[in-house]
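Troubleshooting log. The previous structure file for this entry was overwritten by mistake, so regenerating from the original sequence record. Sequence copied from the archived sheet and checked twice against the printout by T.R.
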Amino acid sequence: MTTSATIPAGERPVGVDIQESEQNRAVIEALEADNENSSVIHMPGLVRVTSPGRLVLRRETVEERLGREWETHEFQLAIISYFGHIKEWDDDEIVIAWDH
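Regenerated output below.
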């Protein structure tokens, strides 16, 4: 059996699949803005946003793009799935990252 080298948690991709819709566009744009090294892939019905090691979504960034107040719990309505651990979820930001 062969083994591959372990990728450090800070480099291992984390991400989220978001239902593609007009109302979720601001969330996708905010994820791109808040994560400099993010990658966005559009697929039928969903958008996958990935980033090495950590993915951050800030309430303030979503509100700027949406033009209205936005609460982080609304993110639950947008996501289809995610990979990584939810490290932080409060009123101001959501952070997805690997523990180790």
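Strands lie at 13-19, 39-43, 46-52, 54-58, 79-83, 85-89, 93-97. Archived copy saved in two places this time.
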